[in-house]
Amino acid sequence: MTIANVIVDVPSQNTNRPFDYGIPEKFEGIVQPGVRVIIPFGPRKIMGYVVSISEESDFSKIKNIIDVLDVTPVLTEELLELGKWLSRKTLSYYISCLQVMLPQVMKAKYRKELWKLTDEYLQSDLDPLFDGRAVIDYEEFEQSNLSYKMLRKHIDDGEVDVHYEVKSRETKKVTSMLEPQMDTMQLEEVLVDLSKQAKKQRAIVEYFMDHKEPITKKQLLQTLGTTAASVKPLVKQGVLQEYEQEVFRDPYGNRNFERTEPFPLTEEQSQAITPILSSIEQRQHEVFLLHGVTGSGKTEVYLQSIQQVIDNGKEAIMLVPEIALTPQMVERFKGRFGSKVAVLHSALSAGEKYDEWRKIQRKEVQVVVGARSAIFAPFSNIGIIIIDEEHENSYKQEDRTRYHARDVAIERASRHGSPVVLGSATPALESYARAAKGNYHLLTLSKRMNNAVMPEVELVDMREELHEGNRSMFSRVLKEKIEARLARREQVVLFLNRRGYSTFVMCRDCGHVMECPHCDIALTYHKNQNRLKCHYCSHEEPMPTECPECESKTIRYFGTGTQKVEEVLQQLIPEAEVIRMDVDTTRRKGAHEKLLQQFGDKKADILLGTQMIAKGLDFGNVTLVGVLAADALLNLPDFRASEKTFQLITQVSGRAGRHEKPGEVIIQTYTPEHYSVELASQYEYEQFFQEEMKLRKAFNYPPYYFLTLFTVSHPNELKVQEVTQKIVQFMRQKLSDQSMVLGPTPSALTRINNRYRYQCMVKYKKEPEQRKLVERILHYYEDEMKQENGLQIVVDFQPYQLM
Ligand SMILES: Nc1ncnc2c1ncn2[C@@H]1O[C@H](COP(=O)(O)OP(=O)(O)OP(=O)(O)O)[C@@H](O)[C@H]1O
Ligand SMILES: [Zn+2]
Ligand SMILES: [Zn+2]
């Protein structure tokens, strides 16, 4: 008897290994590595992933698989292996690593259906089961006692398919199609026979005299302003044929993308692309760091590298940060590669995501453009992996499986013998250091396209503005320059750095700040509801009319939200048309796209926004960029604060003067002398790198040292201190003298949701045994961590969020 080795859907230490199950005869040949199965586990029936098949088991009494969920494996052998690697690398359960690779739908509740994909008779007993229907419940098949092997054959032949339908059906996946059954002459005759009163029917027939192609019923009805009742008799008479067709929920389906041709590359671009192309050709794994200033044509290098990969019959993964997955970006890929592209990002509904994923699985596309999780695209013949804006923190997953997409990319590409291209105008310090050491192959684009100059940057010291009596959040020079742009009908991008700069409420008399009662953090004021909200837990309360401390009526909100800026801006320059882009205005689906379209169509003078406008925008008419609070990030308790500030200023400045018209940038700051602000304003990446490296070395931070961050939390503060203390002691004792173990320290956010948080930070150069030690710690506390609202210990081997 063959045995399936199954990873069960129970994330715990004890179950973090394969369990053996027998394969009943009817499932033989169907159960293979990568399929999901239902198995008995204790008293329950749960889901599991088959990871391998073996001839025998060490156990004498084993249970059988109850059901098989997939007929085609959902995870390839490579992904199963990758899951193992990921689980070792991040110290997470194997099951969590497998789950993280699949679309949400496949973890959620679903209903299974069988779809007949052909009009031909299925040469087996399956056809009578369909009985003329295009879709049947999978249950019907299961109850029919028909053979799974037969089903498998139909699936392999592309005649039948298994579908998982999300429980909450968002949109229909089949649509009715109509097609003429007659030629024009015959339709002519039908028309003659139709009564003059049957106006709608006549219109339909006339339509098909001109259009031979099938059309969706819905579209036809809309075009002709008629109802299904008029279609019905025509179908009955055999004039038209009506049939159901599967539609993929293509989020970009209703848009036409203008096809673009590759540009002839500039000298610099050719020099950069040559080693990439040769790595593709020679199937040689190599990591490239493409350091190109903003607007230097990195994207064109990506596009042409991908073209080569497609020409070789291989597949490409293109990662972009969620925030940069703008319609403009998607357009560029769809424009070049058309329907060969699948797009994966969080704005898609669960169903849409699943459909895009399926296009990849079925090999209907060769390119995927997506955010972090697209790194797990189920391709089997990867020719290149590209990570744009590689310095972005959003490539790091911050819960459960704490992986960095860059690491996964390099691991996958090395298994496929293909290149990885990391691109950025401001590479992460770690990456640039690796390139400097020769671990990555450095490629440079130092010039902008069309020899456009980098925009002139002016720093405005806001302290001086204040001294000279300007209390506004707009400096005088910024105001003047905006007005000049309006006069010339050019456009402006205004950027407000909101992270670490939210609107808080303070009493002017006693200085009391309104804080969340459950978290150690100031509440944020939301103007349209006149309420205070905590961004870490769900707490909210009405805006007080007097100070709870001193009863003074002078309690006000401070700080700057985009809404506030918009108001001030409108008072300052009433004639300006402003588009505001922030979480509030882009919540509705498609809103993001619409606003950018409006701005692109010059329906507004100013685009005002937060982080989401910092990246990827390419508008030729933008000649001025203003940064309102450039240094807000500098005050965060994070050793990467300077690096982030440098990156952000550079990215935002990069939005100006990208085409013919030259650009200008105004940066308002309270710390113009800070090296990250100053060097960013001079586009001195190299020098910034040197400066920052000195500090990292002095304070023993990456890239000189690796970090491991333990965050311990519990409702009882004493308990947290005690556990953290124990971890610190244990690590100090076991690690080598070269390593530093810091703590216990209260985390920067000391309390979230009534749970106290302490941390222990390990800085090390080489500790091969470290993961084993951490495992021992987690094992030791396992019982306490299982309790509801009990102890939590989060270990991050590559921490980016230090709060
Ligand atoms: N070889 C080329 N010839 C002509 N135009 C080009 C060429 N390569 C790129 N471009 C155009 O130059 C502009 C800037 O290029 P692109 O957006 O690719 O730069 P980028 O380095 O990706 O910028 P960023 O990092 O700022 O997003 C785009 O409008 C692009 O279409
Ligand atoms: Zn007060
Ligand atoms: Zn809170």
UniProtKB/TrEMBL annotation:
One GO term (biological process): double-strand break repair
Binding annotation for Zn(2+) 2:
516, 519, 534, 537
Q: Which Gene Ontology terms of cellular component type are present?
A: primosome complex
Alphabetized, the UniProt keywords read: ATP-binding, DNA replication, DNA-binding, Helicase, Hydrolase, Isomerase, Metal-binding, Nucleotide-binding, Primosome, Zinc
Q: Which residues bind Zn(2+) 1?
A: 507, 510, 547, 550
Q: Which cofactor does it need?
A: Zn(2+)
The record's Pfam families line, in alphabetical order, gives:
DEAD (PF00270), Helicase_C (PF00271), PriA_3primeBD (PF17764), PriA_C (PF18074), Zn_ribbon_PriA (PF18319)
Q: Where is the Helicase ATP-binding domain?
A: 279-445
Q: List the catalytic activities from the record.
A: Couples ATP hydrolysis with the unwinding of duplex DNA by translocating in the 3'-5' direction; ATP + H2O = ADP + phosphate + H(+)
- Catalytic EC class: isomerase
| The enzyme's E.C. designation | 5.6.2.4
Q: How is the cofactor bound?
A: Binds 2 zinc ions per subunit.
- Name the NCBIfam families for this protein: priA (TIGR00595), PRK05580.1-3 (NF004066)
* Family (UniProt): Belongs to the helicase family. PriA subfamily.
The protein here is known as: Replication restart protein PriA
Q: Which organism is it from?
A: Halobacillus halophilus (strain ATCC 35676 / DSM 2266 / JCM 20832 / KCTC 3685 / LMG 17431 / NBRC 102448 / NCIMB 2269)
